[in-house]
Amino acid sequence: MKDKYYEQAVTCVKDTVLPAQIKLYKSCGGDFDIIYGEAMNGNGYFGKVIEAGHTYELGYEKCTCPKVQSGQVTDPDQCNCSRQSILYVLNCLEPNSTFEVEILETILRGAEHCRFQITKN
């Protein structure tokens, strides 16, 4: 579901995160169990398989939003931009699949890390 952060999210990740995720997706044979179970761990990110083939967790050790890092934005609602960027990347990787992304916790909301739950339907 696209929200007011969708365009901002696309602009933020289309030239950086998306190409890296496409490369990772291809190197893992399109297997999200491998991506989130093994390959996504390290370099500031962590992943976890909750239910194989269906539910995953993606986390960031620190907030990666440039607007938050610069102090420009402090509103926790900004974390919906990250949620939208994850959805955008997933939809680019598998345009014929349906995904849901839920914010579990974020640094702007007082947590130690940012964590999102991804459900592939």
Structure report:
The protein has 121 residues and is α+β, with helices and mostly antiparallel strands. The protein has one domain (6-120). 38% of the residues lie in helices and 22% in strands. The chain contains 5 helices and 4 strands. The chain has helices at 6-13, 17-27, 32-39, 66-69, 79-93; strands at residues 45-51, 55-60, 99-105, 114-120. The chain has a 4-stranded antiparallel β-sheet with strand order 1-2-4-3, covered by helices on one side. Strand 3 (99-105) and strand 4 (114-120) form a beta hairpin. Helix 1 (6-13) packs across helix 5. The longest helix is centred in the C-terminal third of the chain and has 15 residues, at 79-93. It is globular, with a radius of gyration of 14 Å. It starts with 5 loop residues before the first helix and ends with a strand. The mean pLDDT is 93.
Helix-residue proportion: 25-40%
SS strand fraction: 15-25%
Radius of gyration: 14 Å
- The span between the termini is 14 Å
The average pLDDT score comes to 93
Number of individual domains: 1
How does the overall form come out from the CA principal axes? globular
Alpha plus pi helix count = 5
The total strand number stands at 4
**Helix-and-strand structural type:** alpha+beta
Biggest sheet architecture: 4 strands, antiparallel
